[in-house]
Amino acid sequence: MAHQTKYIFVTGGVTSSLGKGIIAASLAKLLQGRGHSVTIQKLDPYINIDPGTLNPYEHGECYVTDDGAETDLDLGHYERFLNVPTSQANNITTGRIYQSVINKERKGEYLGKTVQVIPHVTDEIIRSIKILGEKGTYDFVITEIGGTVGDIESLPYIEAVRQMCWESKIDCLVIHLTLIPYLSAAGELKTKPTQHSVKELLKLGVQPDILVCRTEHPLNDSIKKKVALFCNVAEEAVIESMDAETIYDVPLLMQKERLDDVVLKKLNCDYLNTKPDLTNWNKFLKRYKNPSHEVRIAIVGKYTELADAYKSIVEGFNHAGAEIEAKLKVKWVQSDDLTEANVERNLNGVSGVLVAPGFGDRGIEGKIATIKYVRENNIPFLGICLGMQCAVIEFARNVMGLEDAHSLEMNKETKHPVINLMESQKEVTNYGGTMRLGAYDCNIEKGTLAYDIYQNTTISERHRHRFEFNNEYKQQFIDNGMVCSGINSENNLVEIVELPSHPFFIGVQFHPEYKSTVANPHPLFVALGKAALAYKKEGQLV
């Protein structure tokens, strides 16, 4: 587009968890399918600087970008839908906004003025929103505002939206996601919550252009007319959003409702294509929904009660399953409960095991017991981050004879810290520790399982961890049959370990799940799926 970037804001009302992120990603997919360049950002109202220090039970998974930003899990949806990397600029928190304002105040940049929410905080929000648009690479910047309209926390964001719309109405558009509940006692859909939610926005000076109405039952014409009339929007701008079978159906549902047409019309944009090209998306959906096989894979972790804690891993399974035309069914296994005595019972019926990442010592021994069992019974295994480190500890204890082998993080007294404090420091966290965050290159040795999987000698993967394989023990591991098949090219750190004596046993220090998308399923998940299928078919791998 020759003219300047257009800004689309997605707000939510009535209740949280309506799916603003999926609607934003679906609209972006439709615009991308028409030939436009699109990015999405998330504004989070919490005062934490980022979700890096949040317990996964609080906010689900912490998603990491190539540039090392610890961000909201919605950015994972954006990348999985669009296959376009995000960055630090795609996730803004109230904490970061206030930190920036206070830093400027301390430096005297406000020239002695009284620093206030308006204009200083709102100006900082607007500056953050425009960073992506001013790059000149995007036709559309879609901005999802976290929380629910009416929350105290989100008021400065709504005010920033009001100011941007006032400055340039032709370049800004507001989509309000709301709920039309069905009251079974009355047998009716009720529009009043939506009306109240829009009135709340109007009180704040923002008139939504489009209403996306979440509903369990179809909206008939009379309901749409009523909502349009009382909420002051065009009838065509009342979009039905029925509960979908999968999140990947939502772009098709939004296309059917002509959401992208309404957006382009209201923003007076070029229709680069008459309709979005979703050929590959539909191919993925067809394979995803019509698997030829089903195989069960255990995810062993300590946050298994909340699937969002491992959101990217689950979606990585979905992408890989579609690729190999198999349903990779997850069996959640709580690592706290596992011992060598009960691990066989807990893993009954699975054809593959993924030991999940995590921090802290809770559940460690259960993970180690799991890895011992899958190693001795030739069950396909993938260890991610802490899962890889547990594989190293288990091998050191039970194969190398270092019975007190452990991680220096878990046991400060251990005589054999086979997992040691990291040698390189990139980020300092609020806990005073150091983390390796973001994308790092890794060299892969030819003739290894890792090379078979990646078909490349150089890869780049994202990291989020504090401890590393201890190179002092490296030769001992090699002498006992473990292969260090992936090495960090920068500082010789071990990134991938594997066991050639086992049909499929691989551990990776990085987080492959962050890079799996609909368009590019991650090869590690594809390989684990294939190995699990072979194990199920043969009773064991050959």
Topology, pairings included?
Elements: E1 6-12, H1 20-33, E2 38-44, H2 56-59, E3 63-64, E4 70-71, H3 74-82, E5 91-93, H4 94-106, H5 117-133, E6 140-145, H6 155-167, E7 172-179, E8 182-183, E9 188-189, H7 192-203, E10 210-215, H8 221-231, E11 238-242, H9 250-256, H10 259-266, H11 279-289, E12 293-301, H12 311-323, E13 326-334, H13 343-346, E14 352-355, H14 364-376, E15 381-384, H15 386-398, E16 405-407, E17 416-421, E18 427-428, E19 434-444, H16 449-454, E20 458-465, E21 467-469, H17 474-479, E22 483-488, E23 494-498, E24 505-508, H18 523-538
Parallel strand pairs: 1-6, 1-7, 2-5, 2-6, 7-10, 10-11, 12-13, 12-14, 14-15, 15-24, 16-17
Antiparallel strand pairs: 3-4, 8-9, 17-21, 18-19, 19-20, 19-22, 22-23, 23-24
Structure, explained:
Helices cover 35% and strands 23% of the residues. The strands form five sheets. Strands 12, 13, 14, 15, 18, 19, 20, 22, 23 and 24 form a ten-stranded mixed beta sheet that branches. A seven-stranded parallel beta sheet has the order 5-2-6-1-7-10-11, with helices on both faces. Strands 16-17-21 form a three-stranded mixed beta sheet, with helices on one face. A hairpin with a 4-residue loop joins strand 8 (182-183) and strand 9 (188-189). The longest helix is centred in the N-terminal third of the chain and has 17 residues, at 117-133.
